[in-house]
Amino acid sequence: MHASIGARQLEPVGWIFAALNLIFLVSAMGLGIFLVVESVPILRLEGVDFWLGDDWWVGESFGALPMICGSLMVTGLATLLVLPVALSGALFTSEYLSPPFRRRVKGIMELLAGVPGIIYGLLGVSFLTVGVKDALNLLDGNTLFTAGLLLAIMILPMILTLSEDALHSVSSEFREAAESLGLTKLQTALRVVLPQSVPGIVGAVLLGIGRAMGETIAVMLVVGSLDRVPGFNLFASGQTIPSKLGREAAEALGSGLHWNALMALGFTLFLVVAILTFSGHLFIKRNSQ
Amino acid sequence: MAEKMVRVLIGCITFLIVALLFSILGVMLLKGLPAMHAGFLFEESRDFGRAGGVYYQSIGTLILMGVAVLWSLPVALGSVLFQTEYLDTGKLKTFLTQLTYILNATPTILFGLVGYLLFGVYLDTGVSWVTGSLILAVMILPTLQVSIREAVEALPEKYREAGMALGLSRPTQIWRIILPQSFYGIVTGVFLGLARAAGETAAIMFTATTFSGIQFPQSFSDPVPTLQTHILVLAQEASNPESIAQAWGAGLVLLGLVFLLTLTAWAFRARVVMESEL
Amino acid sequence: MIQFKNFVAAFGGRKVIRALTFNLPANSITAIIGASGSGKTTLLRALCRMNDRVKNFRVEGNVLIDGMDIYRPDTDVYALRRNVGLVFQKPCVFPKSIFDNAVFGVKEKMHRKEYPDLVEKVLREVFLWEEVKDRLGEKATTLSQGQQQRLTLARTLAVGPQVLLMDEPTSSLDPKSTAAIEKLVQSLKSRHTILWVTHQHDQAHSIADKVLIIENGQIAPFETPVARPEQSSSFTRVLQNVQEYPE
């Protein structure tokens, strides 16, 4: 038996590629490690109270609960609003549209997903906040509800296109088999295609939630940026983790605990998004097998 | 009957979703065009952004995205080739792929935070276009990697085998077969990366940019104005109609740039498909 | 001279070649007949170490070419593959010009000025020169399948191999191109050691000096072509080809 088979000799060029790969590895891992290291001081000081505390007073205490609640409410609302719309769109695109039209819809989704967050923010500031204020007769249109609505629009193309991929990947043999048994197109879609693509759709939604969690600019412009635990009132101003980071990071650099507290917020966000992404891709992979 | 109603209903929803893109485009044109007086692109902004054009802002955006791709491309290319050509299938490969996905999904504000600290403070590049381009480079790395990997993996195995049977060494194989055949995929990745970098605000707003006073960067440690942050500042002066009008103009320029880059990427991606069908 | 000594090739626990021991004399054509799945392709690929990157692939025993064990850890696999040329079942030309394809394997090894002479030499060797000499700049993919297969053979010859491995090189070709390739291989015998894998008995017998049969990863000798009473005429061969590959 020769041990050398399968083992690779690396030529100089190979070492260069290995080094470039190391740069990638270090940048990606370094990001997480940096966030952990920089959060240590505040977490050592406050422990679990950092996440449970509801007061954020620079110089006194740093409680992340208002931001955590805000983020959860805003993304929860966005997910609830987007789900029926995105799934309808995905079902129609996958099951009823001809290939050329399907490709066009997918292309439009890619363009929509590429619209910069700042553009959504500008649109949100100019129309959505005013619309929400007038429609609901509020004093201020910068609310958690507004942010959720805007986020729903922003994550729509991503969830739609990924769910559509899942639906479309179901083998057409199943569709034909079902239709040969006399099922209508809709029955086939709902009883044969949809159940088989559940993992892929779950994955799409998880990735969409991850995207919504991290959106900064657009949310920052419409959420009202008020640090308080919102209770269950969606129609009040609030704060999300990224909007808090966006508002305060520039002034906090080098100011000790304040900076550490922001980094701990960032670490919390990173952890949640990483888990969502990891499990999202796991579901999508399971769907394609 | 019910069948037909459901079909019409979800059809209408799909239509509305598609219409969303066109309404965004329409609104941007409607609101942005009035600000686009002759020379909007070639005049500097005056009076704290309330008048003039967006010349230096456009230059700033172009500098940041262009330099970011310059940093990012060799790393993306090298890491993908290392993973596909040198690494055996296995745990490390899966791990690196997962890492790409996670990096891709990481909230962009975190790149700003960590980059600010690492480059701006520890490496002392300060708030500058260099810091910003480095941060954006890491941020768009997954975009480039995914496109390049798709192209490399779409390459039919028979070419690799034919090259191998001729006794080509691995670097020769990469240089003569893999790179030429995945050229369009690489270009696609570059343009998608440019588009992503152009549209990004959160990662650069406190690391690379300044609102006014700076024109063309004179040194490595100068910040630049950008379209993205220009809009951000103006949008927060919602009560001032002149500021908002300028914001729409800058928004239209930015959106046009991003769409143009994406469409260019598509043109190259279409060729990837053609090549792989040879 | 190629020697197999107790040679085993396996994918994980599944042995595809079992304890093979036999010799191939230099400057001769040896044909190996086997059904699909009998291990004949694995045998060829093992001879130029094309399976090194395949997961779980492992070998036992020795393969010696001119007395050198090709699986020794310090073997230069690239030099080995240049010395042992492999021609695939389906011609795989690169989407480049005919000229570029012919010199594809040697571009780094010689000066640009030497290319034209080499191209002419190898294209003449495969009897393709007259057909393509006026359109060397055209894409190789515009050639017919038979021409493409001869071009891949020329591409392999340009590298200067001592051993030529042919993996059913005519199975995707029409009878006329098949006959051309068979004739061509005969002409290469004086300078190369040729191993030809096929599943057509009559083809094996008509071209080879020695015929072996591979079954379940083991090799059995076959009677030499001379011992075979009636040699099928090329006409019946053509018919059989036509029947097997209606095109």
Q: By CATH's scheme, which homologous superfamily of chain A applies?
A: MetI-like
- Head-to-tail CA distance between termini of chain C: 39 Å
Instruction: Note the overall shape of chain A.
Output: globular
Number of helices of chain A: 12
Structure description:
The complex is a heterotrimer of chains A (289), B (278) and C (247). Chain A is mostly helical. Chain A has one domain (66-288): MetI-like (MetI-like fold). Chain A has helices at residues 12-46, 49-52, 65-95, 99-114, 117-136, 144-168, 172-180, 185-196, 198-214, 217-222, 241-252, 257-288, and strands at residues 56-57, 61-62. In chain A, helix 6 packs antiparallel against helix 9. The longest helix of chain A has 35 residues, at 12-46. Chain B has helices spanning 2-32, 55-86, 91-105, 108-122, 129-154, 157-165, 170-181, 183-199, 227-235, 241-276, and strands at 45-46, 51-52. A two-stranded antiparallel ribbon of chain B has the order 1-2. Chain C has a domain at 2-89 and 163-244: Rossmann fold. Chain C contains nine helices and ten strands. A six-stranded mixed β-sheet of chain C has the order 6-7-8-3-9-10, with helices on both faces. In chain C, strands 2-1-4-5 form a four-stranded antiparallel β-sheet, covered by helices on one side. The radius of gyration of chain C is 18 Å and the shape is globular. Residues 225-247 of chain C have low confidence and may be disordered. At the A-B interface, helix 1, helix 3, helix 4, helix 5 and helix 6 of A face helix 1, helix 2, helix 3, helix 4 and helix 5 of B.
